[in-house]
Amino acid sequence: MSDHGMFGVPGTGDTSGFGGLVRTVANPGSSERPFGSYFDEVADDLERAYPDFAEAIERVVVDRGELTLYVKREKLVDVALVLRDKLLFEMCLGVNGVHYPADTNRELHAVYPLLSMTNNRRIRLEVCVPDSDPHIPSLVEVWAGNNWNERETFDMFGIIFDGHPGLTRILMPDDWRGHPQRKDYPLGGIPVEYKGATVPPPDERRSYR
Amino acid sequence: MSTFTDPYASSRETTEGTVFSVTGGDWDSLITEIGATKEERVVVNMGPQHPSTHGVLRLVLELEGETVKELRCGIGYLHTGIEKNAEFRSWTQGVTFVTRMDYLAPLFNETAYCLGVEKLLGITNDVPERASAIRVMMMEFNRISSHMVALGTGALELGALTPMIFCFREREKVLDIFELISGLRMNMAYIRPGGVAQDLPAGALSKIRETVKELRRDFKDNEKLLIGNTIWMKRTEGIGYLDLAGCTTLGITGPVLRSTGMPWDLRKTEPYSGYENYDFDVITANTSDVYGRFLIRMGELEQSLRIIEQCVAKLETLEGAPVMVADKKIAWPSQLAIGGDGMGNSLEHIRDIMGESMESLIHHFKLVTEGFRVPAGQVYSAVESPRGELGVHLVSDGATKPYRLHFREPSFNNLQATSAMCEGSLIADIIGAVASIDPVMGGVDR
Do residue A26 and residue B269 have CB atoms under 8 angstroms apart? Predict the structure, then answer.
């Protein structure tokens, strides 16, 4: 992904020099062993306790002192059970969606932060699914507290958690259309007139990139 | 169907049975009518506008007599879309949004968010010691003011009026400190990525020391009034029971978790902002009930005062040290000054950018309008708020705005425990159980 210029206007008479800058944004890529900290131990333990490790875990990312395991959705419940029972990640701190429209066939990500109180460790699971088939197995059977969090993620992103006991909207009204926190959902707001000029809604204003 | 007309209690038939609308002052006629339906189970909507549901929380109760058979929460009435809005504002402006989530603990929201931004920027260790000490001190004051509301409103809901008066008297003193330091009593946007918005004003530390003394003296009023009080014990002991297994599976943190005897406090287990340098105890109880949670909150008040005293001592040695990171590409260009109406412009800075240095003006303009860029990636940072683990999941795509901002609100998760705590109990005990969870709907609904 690269951006040209500071605003959304190409080919202006900008003489500041910024207009010609090309900025490349790189997301952190997969990590190789050794991961550092306790992450190697977690990966080893998981590999030992869960023979399908290589097949279930798409990639491992260690970034800014945090471990993220990208899990295939078919294996999510199995991995979660092993993490809870064998690696003692007793607590799941919910699930959060992120929408990446540019990540083709992996547009919707669900992120689960896990906490092991016994070992005082944290890891993160991430599951990526396509927008056209936004199904992820529910983890309510594994961590009951994920109930509301999954409802919220469904409400905001339209990710369908299969097996959830009652997947309904939680924050938005029941008859709301669309999933507000997706990137293709407009921010809304109305143009405001002030002294004859009109101020557009925030997401349509000229802004820096 | 109604045999007489009552302007306040109408009824209508639905496929689910008769629905009564009650607006107060008409219980006699309601009871007469319900008696006629011969239904044993009654579904009652408590809230969203009910004096003892802590804001706009709706509880759907299925009752048999006075016993709660099933309880479900309805939330979302206070959803403001803060997470979405923040995606359209710079990283610094994000503070102004997140401070409004859990409005009783604004400084915790700000700190959790700023720690996340700093982690993304990789400047966690560059935050000046003085800024961290100010953050800790402000957070502990905030813990006191938040617990004061929890205790005061909790007692009020159970019928005790006096503790509420005492609690709000104490809270007022804490809010005065906030006003003195940040210019605002709530929603301060005082803690910023890289440090704090401005240094302590002259005379703040002596005022704080005085206030700590007063608070320690005045906390005793509530202790004398409630601890061991027979009526209070009868309303709280054994009520709202939730054990450790229940807490872990439901993701419950904070005083509710500590009331099971689990000494889990992020200030000890994963210290941030230099908490490892302060001497304090984690208060626990082993009763897993409302009374235990009440005792924990009471105990935490004294621990917060201890931390504040250590902060004051530390801040005295750090007089004149910076309160914002040295990196001029991130640090807010001006330190604000407090005027008569809250936070205001620093005249010295205005003189510099308007009259002396064109480069300073350009720099100020760039940083204030565009903001700083944050390298792409994602982080999770958590702090121990008065209600439990307040986590922030931040995603950056390398721009000057968050790509995604999500708060893991302790109120949101803890409120799920209401059903587990209340089903099978009496209606009157719901009030105590919800009060002991201390949910803040601004945080639940965001």
Answer: no
Concatenated DSSP letters of B399-418: SSS-SEEEEE-HHHHHHTHH
Cβ <8 Å between B251 and A145: yes
Average pLDDT value for residue range B307-321: 91
Average pLDDT on B393-404 reads 89
CATH code for the domain of A35 = 3.30.460.80
Residues in CB range of B176: below 8 A, 6 or more apart: B185, B211
* The two structure tokens encoding residue A99: 């929408």
- Residue A98 one-letter amino acid: V
End-to-end CA gap in chain B: 41
Q: Is A88 on the interface with B (CB under 8 A)?
A: no
Q: Does pTM top 0.80 for this prediction?
A: yes
Quote the distance between the C-alpha of residue B256 and its chain's center.
Answer: 14
Q: Answer for the pair B11, B21: CB distance below 8 angstroms, yes or no.
A: yes
Question: Quick check: ipTM above 0.95?
Answer: no
Does residue A102 fall inside a structural domain? yes
Is B79 in the A-facing interface, judged by CB distances under 8 Å? yes
> Which residue of chain A is at minimal alpha-carbon distance from B442?
A171
> Is the minimum CB–CB distance between A103 and chain B shorter than 8 Å?
no
| Residue B177: Cβ-neighbour burial (10 angstroms; 0-12, 13-18, 19+) | buried
| Domain interval for residue A181 | 19-204
Strands A57-63 and A91-92: unpaired
Domain count, chain A: 1
Please tell me the predicted confidence (pLDDT) of residue A1: 41
**Separation of alpha carbons B388 and A95, rounded Å:** 17
Rounded to whole angstroms, the Cα distance separating A91 from B264 reads 12
Q: Is residue A89 part of a domain?
A: yes
Q: Is residue A9 part of a domain?
A: no
Three state DSSP letters for A134-202: CEEECCCCCCCCHHHHHHHHHHHHCCEEECCCCCCCCCCCCCCCCCCCCCCCCCCCCCEEECCEEECCH
Residue A10 inside a domain? The answer is no
Query: What is the reported pLDDT for A34?
Result: 82
Judging contacts by C-beta atoms under 8 Å, the chain B residues touching residue A171 are 75-76, 79, 445-446
Are B413 and A96 inside 8 Å of each other by CB? no
Chain A residue numbers touching B85 (CB-CB < 8 A) = 187, 202
Cα–Cα distance measured from residue B135 to residue B297, given in angstroms and rounded to the nearest whole number: 21
Confidence check: pLDDT of B13 > 90: no
**pLDDT at site A47:** 85
- Rounded Cα distance between A92 and A123, Å, is 10
Q: What tens digit of pLDDT does each residue of A189-203 get?
A: 666 777 888 777 766
CB-based contacts of B36: which residues, under 8 Å, 6+ apart?
A: none
Domains and CATH numbers, chain B: 82-330+372-445 (1.10.645.10)
